[in-house]
Amino acid sequence: MAPLLALFLAALMGLPLAQALDCHVCAYNGENCFNPMRCPSMVTYCMTTRIYASTTACCQYDLCNGAGRATPGALALALAPVLLAALRGLL
């Protein structure tokens, strides 16, 4: 029972959080990239492109077109040993 509970909790931690995300929005000259923009709840990524009028798409984690935050892939790599141990306990 305990390995099954551990597997369930590990899977639950891997689910995306249901919250609105913030993405950086750059001004048309590209110098002001620190204005957070609230994203819709169903977006998957964030990217600001430099064209005549800057466009912004949103992401799965806050301010993902900025630097320094951990990505969901890093979280999955960190949880991999826990999942393997739980699966080994079930076999």
Automatic annotation (TrEMBL):
Membrane topology note: Lipid-anchor; GPI-anchor
Organism this protein belongs to: Molossus molossus (Pallas' mastiff bat)
Gene Ontology, cellular component aspect: plasma membrane; side of membrane
Xref: InterPro entries: Ly-6/neurotoxin-like_GPI-ap (IPR051110), Snake_toxin-like_sf (IPR045860)
Keyword Membrane belongs to the record: yes
Gene3D superfamilies xrefs: CD59
Signal peptide residue numbers: 1-20
Tagged with keyword Lipoprotein: yes
Name of this chain's protein: Ly6/neurotoxin 1
Location of this chain's protein in the cell: Cell membrane
Record keywords: Glycoprotein, GPI-anchor, Lipoprotein, Membrane, Neurotoxin, Signal, Toxin
Main location: membrane
